[in-house]
Amino acid sequence: MKATIRKELSEKTADKDPFRQFARWFSEAARTVTTDVNAMCLATADAKGRPSARMVLLKEVDPSGFVFFTSYESRKGREISDNPHVAATFFWKELERQVRITGRARKVTVARSEAYFRSRPQESQVSAAVSPQSQVIPDRNFLEKRKNELLKAAGKDGEIPMPGNWGGFIIIPETMEFWQGREHRLHDRILYKKGRKGWTLSRLAP
């Protein structure tokens, strides 16, 4: 059986800008991964440092950071308000690649949140509006009732107002690590670290 030829990641060929390197890998993953290429595991911690993690979807990325949207009253929203230090991980099994990000999260502007909210299908707008995310609810009917009431009030083509407690966070990275799987667990790991003069690049042992 022919051995799998894995790709390599070298500090000599990696882009000096981690955002351009991420764009390169993300583009390759989008052509290879079948679903949810933008899924990332987001880790937060409360004011006492107790961690929690969950999957969220990356919705925007620009030279300043990585953006996702959620309820500000959800567990992650409350934890970010108490402790803005976060970590996020992308894993693309088909390419044997992983990207790890650490940094600080802050809210995006209301205008940016509104623009994204308006781009969503009505069903997704309704879900954001009726769900008291992370809170205990009595049963499924609680959500269905709120959904039906909202749709009735909005009408067939009515606009769903963006909830005041909903919007985006942007993760402003302090480190970004790119991991490329290699044979015999001698993986490639390239770390970018943000300093006063920009990004520095170094190789880590696997």
Main β-sheet description: 9 strands, antiparallel
Number of strands: 9
By CATH, the superfamily of the domain at 18-120 and 166-204 comes out as Electron Transport, Fmn-binding Protein, Chain A
CATH architecture of the domain at 18-120 and 166-204: Roll
- What's the CATH class of the domain at 18-120 and 166-204, please? Mainly Beta
DSSP strand (E) fraction? 35-45%
Radius of gyration, Cα only, in angstroms? 20 Å
If you consult CATH, what is the topology of the domain at 18-120 and 166-204? Pnp Oxidase, Chain A
Element string (H = helix, E = strand): HEEEEHEEHHHEEE
Mean pLDDT: 94
- Range of helix content: 25-40%
Distance separating the two termini? 27 Å
With helices defined by DSSP (H or I, 4 residues minimum), what is the helix count? Answer: 5
Can you tell me the residue ranges where pLDDT is under 50 for at least 5 consecutive residues? none
Task: Using the alpha-carbon principal axes, give the shape.
Answer: elongated
Find the structural class using helix and strand composition. alpha+beta
Description:
This protein has 206 residues and is of the alpha+beta class. It has a domain at 18-120 and 166-204: Roll (Pnp Oxidase, Chain A), CATH 2.30.110. It has helices at 18-32, 75-82, 110-119, 122-130, 140-154, and strands at residues 39-45, 51-57, 60-62, 65-71, 85-92, 97-107, 166-180, 188-195, 198-204. Strands 1, 2, 3, 4, 5, 6, 7, 8 and 9 form a 9-stranded antiparallel sheet that branches. A hairpin with a 7-residue loop joins strand 7 and strand 8. Helix 4 (122-130) packs across helix 5 (140-154). It is elongated. The mean pLDDT is 94.
